Amino acid sequence: MRWDIGIDLGTQSARMATLKGGPALSVPATLAFREGNRVPICAGDIAQRLVGRACEGVSVVHPLRDGVLENNLYAASLLQWLFRRAEDVNARRRFGAMITCAPFARPVQREAMLTAAIDAGAAEAALVRSDAASAVGAGLDLNSPEAKLVIDIGAGKITATLFTFGRVAAFGHLPYGMNRVDERIRRILRSEFGYRVGEAVSEEIKNTLGSAMPDQAPHDIIMHATGVSLTQRMPVHFDVETRPVLDACEDVVAEIARLATSVANNAPEELAADLNDAGAVLTGGGAVMAELDRRIGQALGVPCRVADAPEGCAIRGLFRIMEAPELYPGAIMQRQSKQVW
Ligand SMILES: Nc1ncnc2c1ncn2[C@@H]1O[C@H](COP(=O)(O)OP(=O)(O)OP(=O)(O)O)[C@@H](O)[C@H]1O
Ligand SMILES: [Mg+2]
């Protein structure tokens, strides 16, 4: 099978690569539907602008939640929308699609994702481990015997995987991602300060003030934000200090460090020893949080680095797997062909 299209379908972003053109597109994994209608009004960036702004009768949705498929109709719609944007793949020709999938997705979620890809127009669909795609995209040689620890920090899931010989030697995950920090920021601002803020604002606050080393973060920075005052019941501008944001980050960061150490500790001795030289690599959009590499490196006691352009690791790796799937047999989880009666 020729794999013409690759899609890294994430909780927050969907990224697409084509065999001819390479990684080509990155859009929010968001759709807007009018009530009772199965065809979306819009998708991607335009739908994302409707988050928190949708009017009555319009719902703004994401196909994935916490890193795994939540709604197969939404997934099929988004995949179809993306397939149509793959300009160098003629829509009438049979094409194969590779899609990234959380390694911990349940069988029913995997089946539903494969069926969604076929319903969206693919003749054959394959699911690729998202952690393996990220490792390849980070430039790691998955098939060498030396151990490699890859920690993928996304919006809806966080995985830690130790690879050797192209196979998984140890694996662990958290059923939430960096969006959990945004939720905590919204909760703290509401309960302690009396402001309600939207998802985009809480994410911006996290990305600007968040840090994985609370003791060393500058505490005198203040950020201006916009929200609704619960007492005045009016939109207001207010200042956010660093301390509550660092508190919101801390629980999630501590869990990531614990996950990484438990995966390294579960590895056979020789592989754990390899990590002293190879260290750990962080991928995914959340990897760029200030000081996260240093914090995880300290917890592990080995060097830890952030991959280049970490948010694009999964799609770059998926593209390389599409080019030569025979080199990565351990990365492909499951496949399905369109039934022709
Ligand atoms: N500077 C930053 N500090 C902290 N988090 C950040 C920063 N920049 C981006 N992020 C977070 O990274 C996440 C997006 O990562 P990514 O694009 O890898 O997720 P995804 O692939 O859509 O989701 P998943 O793979 O978990 O299903 C978002 O939660 C975003 O807020
Ligand atoms: Mg991802």
Order of helices and strands: EEEEEHEEEHEHEHEEEHEHEEHHEHEHE
Number of discrete helical segments: 10
Give me the Rg, rounded.
21 Å
Task: Count up the domains.
Answer: 2
- Which fold name corresponds to the CATH topology of the largest domain? Nucleotidyltransferase, domain 5
Structure described in brief:
This protein has 341 residues and is of the alpha+beta class. Helices cover 35% and strands 29% of the residues. It has two domains: 3-133 and 313-337, Nucleotidyltransferase, domain 5, CATH 3.30.420.40; 140-306, Nucleotidyltransferase, domain 5 (2-Layer Sandwich).
Give an overview in words.
- This protein is an alpha+beta fold.
- It has two domains: 3-133 and 313-337, ATPase, nucleotide binding domain (Nucleotidyltransferase, domain 5, 2-Layer Sandwich), CATH 3.30.420; 140-306, Nucleotidyltransferase, domain 5, CATH 3.30.420.40.
- Helix content is 35%, strand content 29%.
- The protein has ten helices and 19 strands.
- Strands 3-2-1-9-10-19 form a six-stranded mixed sheet, with helices on both faces. A five-stranded mixed sheet has the order 13-12-11-17-18, with helices on both faces. The chain has a three-stranded antiparallel sheet with strand order 5-4-6.
- β1 and β2 (13-18) form a beta hairpin.
- The protein is flat, with a radius of gyration of 21 Å.
- The structure holds adenosine-5'-triphosphate and magnesium ion (MG).
- Magnesium ion (MG) binds at residues 10, 130, 154, 284, 314.
